[in-house]
Amino acid sequence: MAGDQDLFDAIVMADDRFHGEGYQEGYEEGSSLGIIEGRQHGTLHGAKIGSEIGCYQGFAFAWRCLLQSRATEKDSRKMKVLESLIGMIEKFPYDDPTYGKLHDDLDRIRGRFKQLCSLLNVQPDFKISVKGSELSF
Q1: Which terminus of the chain has fewer CB atoms gathered within 10 Å of its CB, N or C?
Q2: pTM
Q3: How far is CA 38 from CA 23, 32, 34, 42, 106, in A?
């Protein structure tokens, strides 16, 4: 009779055991896929931010060369904002994705870029697409 009881318990408990094993297998596979998907998502958004910052940096370097070649007293404010933008870009933490103020710093750089464009009377159109980034005037 004890053998029958053990067999009955094994049948009843099989459901719980299979449920637990299925949960564990699903959790492990989901974790693995989540890491892969997270890495792809992070790479994509990191590339977009890097492209945007690089565009701002190229814009700033080009205008610094232009303004230095014909520096007037009127251009001093433009140069001050321009140097501020370059300094912010150089201090941007490219290699620390856990930096808590990453988005705040990026917003400040965007704001300074807009301020500079306003002072230079330039209306940029920055676009990020599958092909790459573009900055047109």
Answers
A1: N
A2: 0.69
A3: 22, 10, 6, 6, 21
